Amino acid sequence: MKVSLDRRRVLRGLVAGSAVSVGLPRLEVMLDGHGLAYANGQPLPKRFGVWAFANGVHSDRWVPTRTGVGDEWQLSEQLRPLARIKPYLSVVSGTTLPFDGRPHAAGAGVLMTGAPLGGSTDNTFTVRRASIDQLVARQVGHATAFRSLELGVDASASPEKGTAFHWWSHNGPGSPNPCSYDCGQVFDRLFGRRPESAVQLADQRSILDAVMADTRDLTRMLGARDRMRLDQHLDGVRALEKQLSFRPPVGCVPPPRPADGLVGPHNAVDYQPGGTEVNRTMAQLLALALACDLTRVFTFQLLKPGSRVGLRSLGFSLYHDITHKEPGDQPKCNAAVTFFMNELAVLIETLRAVSEGAGNLLDGCAIMASTDCTHPKTHGRTDYPLLVIGRGGGTLRSNLHYQSRTNENSCRVPLTLARAVGANLSEMGEGPGRATESLGALLV
User: Above 50 in pLDDT, residue 158?
Assistant: First the structure.
């Protein structure tokens, strides 16, 4: 007789007279016969992600020369580092970002929101709407301890102060979600600095319970609009409650804590060797967070928009400067893009190595990888570089090169991925950037 087990089943016991429970990992007995869903029919989690680098690509070395699926297309020169994950990769070319604007800030901000930048100077440029990752998080993040995670490698300072020069993820105008660049701090946030005993946990939870009970009493006295405002205000309280009550499942054993000081490179500091180690460690921490279902939405900024990070191993000190100064076909910049694709490959191969059900984490992911402009020297917004990674829990096609012949709105790509993971979004953006239709070529 086949035994089934509810995914919410916990191990129960007593510690110092207090009742405690420990969650279980995603065991095979919880899944259906195909390993594609829980035994009760509920599908495995889907995850939405954004991976970002900076300063553009060279279209003649980035865009594959052939379209199609599988063997019908081949990786371009700058995409060859992704050869091992080609079965999970799709390239979208020929689309156009719908707004001009301040280089670098506009590329990231417009792609993520479908709206022109707000602000008027380098110190005030920000987004005008919530970014697509946060629109997804508002719908799927309620089930996890962390509504979204924002991780970064490039901690280099930017002379521009506007939030659109620093962050891809925003809650709204002037409200960014800053990345964490310190691997130890990310580890502590995910797995450490939690109540050590069941009694401490109960005490902290009782405070929150009292707050929520008082909230219910207050809500009865408020009008509809005030109830909405109060509910938004308490999102942070609810998030804290989840984090206090979370205990990693038994099968989700964290690795040893990263050493103190493992932080991404700062301004005028060479990316190597520290950046590569930070990138690899952040990839491992993210993979574990996804496997343990701590979050289903993430932003991974390898580089900030307009990054000033150094790449002395490639023959120059400040990457952003060389993109403007190097003449001709820019061989150093080409080497830099190839280097960054190797760093992307580290993350993607780390996710693929984690088994889940009948497949791996990539099977349940929908990840958009992009940069903040088209060409390193001229910037630009046409033929915008876009990669799609993962199969979205069976909703996305993969191993595909789709080339738009009609300059379609680039923002259709993030909207497509958001819907692929279950976000019920009718549209994103405004004006010329407004996207209402998914990009059908990416869908199964």
Answer: yes
Return the exposure string of 281-315: e unless at least 16 CB atoms fall within 10 Å of the residue's CB, then b: bbbbbbbbbbbbbbbbbbbbbbbbbbbbbbbeebe
Tokens 């499942």 belong to 249
In this predicted model, what pLDDT tens digit does every residue of 170-222 receive, in sequence order? 999 999 999 999 999 999 988 875 433 333 444 444 444 555 666 677 777 77
- In this structure, the dihedral spanned by the alpha carbons of residues 97, 66, 336 and 103, taken in order and rounded to 10 degrees, is -10
Among 188-202, 283-297, 384-398, the least confident range:
188-202
**How many CA atoms, within 13 angstroms, populate the side-chain half-sphere of residue 135?**
23
Average pLDDT, the chain: 85
Q: How far apart are CA 389 and CA 347, in angstroms?
A: 11
The pLDDT value given to residue 315: 87
- Rounded to the nearest 5 degrees, what angle is found at the Cα of 53, between the Cα atoms of 300 and 410? 95
Report the candidate in 157, 127, 95, 186 with the shortest Cα–Cα distance to residue 368.
Answer: 95
Comparing C-alpha atoms, which of 404, 408, 321, 386 is closest to residue 132? Answer: 386
pLDDT computed for residue 416 by the predictor: 98
pLDDT at 6: 55
How deeply is 344 buried, as exposed, middle or buried, from its count of CB atoms within 10 A (0-12, 13-18, 19+)? buried
Angle (deg, nearest 10), helices 331-352 and 274-291: 30
Strand runs labelled E in 337-377: 355-356, 359-360, 365-370
Q: Is residue 232 predicted with pLDDT exceeding 60? A: no
Cβ–Cβ < 8 Å for 414, 112: yes
Q: What angle do CA 369, 266, 52 make, to 5 degrees?
A: 5
